[in-house]
Amino acid sequence: MKVSPTPMVFLQLKSRVRLPRESVVKLRDVAFIVCEPAAWEQKLLDMPLAKPRDKDGNHLVIDLIQIIPKIQQFVPGAHIEPMGNHHTLVELVGPPNRSSRYWFPLVWLLLFFGSMLTIMNFHADVNMLEVQIRIVEILTGKRDEQPYLFQIAYSLGLGFGMTVFFNHLFKKKWNEEPTPLEVEMYLYQENLDQFVVAEEYRKMSSKNEPAGRKP
Fold this sequence. Notes:
Strand content: 15-25%
Radius of gyration: 28 Å
């Protein structure tokens, strides 16, 4: 008699996913899996894990403690090998807000004029006009109180230098290297995700405390 081998499930959780608020969170949404025998793979990928509720807010944490019992219940006797992350942060998104397209020009103008005033105030603080006059005087031997040609070249060079530094012009990138802004946004998102996960675990632990127990 042929003995069927013990099912093996290799499980790797994703770090972060975005899902519609109304959808049921399935295993395929939060994890990559490899099964032996492979016949179980599609069935496990479609296995439901959680249904978001209104009180869950905008984030939901799915961790191995929730997933492993469900897999073992679905595939009795399965041997599970988790790899990588121990939890997945699920961001619950609603329908797109059409009003955001009206806010974009306002935010763009605010950032544009704010940056312009910041550069102008910096130049005024360091007396940039006198510095430019002195540079032109050194180069030409004549003092020009309004060195427009030098100022135009300086302004164009300032914009070109910022474009090269940030490696970005609208949607065009000069190479595949991440820009400094992208790196900072990535680090900010990592720290934000860690904070949200810690808060979600704190909420879950407070719900599991006995009713009569005080913190």
